[in-house]
């Protein structure tokens, strides 16, 4: 695998610009589909010589309501994805920790605040700024082992034709 000593970090806007320069049209405030992610991985490898990179500051509109907006541009969020060979392996973000702001964001996203009141109430006793991330372990194994299908990394893979072991 090709990688740099210091992991490459690109903003979402920089990734969109690279795709546009390659003739791929994407919404600058939308999300990337799998095909665009793979193409960006190819472009990053060609331009920067790495297969591992971080794409950060995703548009706020494509992230969950509890994702903290960027302080300098609330159209974007304090969120990131980590990619290997154009495949997302980690997704994460800073979370909103202020209950009133959580209520406001939930309302903006069409979520009835009453349905998540216990979640919001948990922040009323104080919560420090914090974040989280999720790792797609099977995807990481697939990419690390250069396998051609994620089902090869799972003991009991699921798909539309197989829902039981």
UniProtKB/TrEMBL annotation:
Pfam families: tRNA-synt_2. Keywords: Aminoacyl-tRNA synthetase, ATP-binding, Cytoplasm, Ligase, Nucleotide-binding, Protein biosynthesis. Residues 1-157 form the Aminoacyl-transfer RNA synthetases class-II family profile domain. GO terms for biological process: aspartyl-tRNA aminoacylation. Its EC number is 6.1.1.12. GO terms for cellular component: aminoacyl-tRNA synthetase multienzyme complex; cytosol. GO terms for molecular function: aspartate-tRNA ligase activity; ATP binding; RNA binding. InterPro entries: Aa-tRNA-synt_II (IPR004364), aa-tRNA-synth_II (IPR006195), aa-tRNA-synth_II/BPL/LPL (IPR045864), Asp-tRNA_synthase_2 (IPR004523), Asp/Asn-tRNA-synth_IIb (IPR002312). It catalyses: tRNA(Asp) + L-aspartate + ATP = L-aspartyl-tRNA(Asp) + AMP + diphosphate. It is found in: Cytoplasm. Gene3D superfamilies: Bira Bifunctional Protein, Domain 2. Belongs to the class-II aminoacyl-tRNA synthetase family. Type 2 subfamily. This is aspartate--tRNA ligase.
